[in-house]
Design goal:
three-stranded mixed β-sheet; 345 residues; alpha/beta
Length: 345
């Protein structure tokens, strides 16, 4: 889970720490413009022009080449250890990181201390597929813009992992890639699987280098074979809606789990209000069990699968009302507790 619809930061954090205190996630409050998914991680990108109605690259600007030089000089200074990430353009600013910093302050006094912490970052494919230049060309197709976006996200992910890691708890950072639902379509026909995995690997590599676990989240159907390689520790998908398509990769999935991979089952619906209203913990537990029993083998029992599983909402809650978003968070805890009691205990 990434986003919540709340205006009140303290109320949002109260919800997180009351309902999912074991692995709390800092919430993106999308009512604040600088915390929206396609805006929160663009600070520091060279050649970017931000206006109230549009964010785009302006590579024809005479200053662009110098901005590129400045960017790479700072990038190299950070990666060579000459400049701290905390002093660089790759950290959150005061506005984009307001809720994140409030979350860190709350963690300092939180008792009992969480078992682990969860963060998130917009994925490189999604950000590149959402940003254009002054000629309305996707940044995805400009090699210069692709490189700076990937490097920016990689270092921002590393910085976030380091900040969360100050509490000496395991840190999991999800790379959010909703745009990969369109991978392989005519809109992205010229983008290869190797290019996608190379971008993901660079971001995941910086998360892992900082001591974190790297996960990927896609809230729709995609080519799931992109994620069963060696660079990702967790795969998060919308199990409520897309389990049957995900299960087509059963062999790859079980191999991933056998290597120690974790599956984050987005079994609590968020995409349709009617589904949120009609479901309860009992119905969702039954739904999850029916699904996962299709994957069970003599080598992989239901208990073994659950031990390498995380229960999550299917996607963020930013588009829901506060009341329904709070129900989603509560259901996530209830489903997790019931499955643990029924299967593992």
């Amino acid at each position: 889970m990434g986003s919540l619809p709340h205006h009140d930061r303290q109320r949002a954090l109260d919800l997180i720490f009351e309902e999912i205190a074991e692995i709390p996630s800092w919430p993106q409050l999308s009512v604040y413009p600088m915390e929206q998914m396609m805006v929160q991680y663009v600070e520091g990108l060279p050649g970017l022009a931000i206006s109230p109605n549009r964010t785009r690259f302006v590579s024809s600007n005479p200053r662009f080449d110098q901005e590129l030089v400045d960017f790479y000089e700072e990038y190299l200074a950070v990666t060579n250890g000459e400049l701290s990430l905390a002093q660089s353009r790759f950290r959150f600013g005061n506005d984009s990181g307001s809720t994140f910093f409030t979350f860190l302050e709350r963690l300092e006094r939180q008792q009992p201390s969480p078992a682990a912490l969860k963060g998130q970052i917009t994925g490189p494919f999604t950000l590149l597929a959402g940003l254009k230049d002054e000629n309305d060309q996707l940044a995805l197709y400009d090699s210069r813009l692709r490189d700076v976006v990937v490097k920016t996200l990689a270092l921002k992910a590393q910085w976030q992992t380091e900040q969360l890691g100050r509490l000496s708890r395991p840190v999991l950072v999800f790379i959010d890639e909703p745009a990969l639902a369109g991978f392989g379509s005519s809109a992205f026909i010229s983008v290869s699987a190797e290019e996608v995995t190379t971008m993901l690997d660079e971001v995941a590599g910086h998360i892992r280098a900082a001591g974190g676990l790297a996960g990927v989240h896609v809230c729709a159907n995609t080519d799931w074979s992109l994620f069963f390689g060696g660079s990702l520790d967790v795969i998060n998908f919308d199990a409520y809606t897309y389990f049957e398509r995900f299960a087509l990769y059963r062999r790859d999935l079980l191999s991933f789990v056998d290597r120690g991979g974790i599956v984050a089952w987005g079994i609590v619906p968020t995409m349709e209000e009617e589904s949120v209203i009609q479901e309860d913990a009992e119905s969702l537990v039954s739904r999850w069990r029916r699904q996962v029993e299709q994957l069970v083998t003599t080598d992989f029992s239901l208990k073994n699968i659950l031990r390498q599983s995380i229960i999550t909402p299917s996607c963020g809650c930013g588009t829901l009302s506060e009341r329904l978003a709070e129900k989603v968070v509560q259901l996530t805890r209830q489903v997790s507790e019931r499955l643990r009691h029924e299967i593992v205990a």
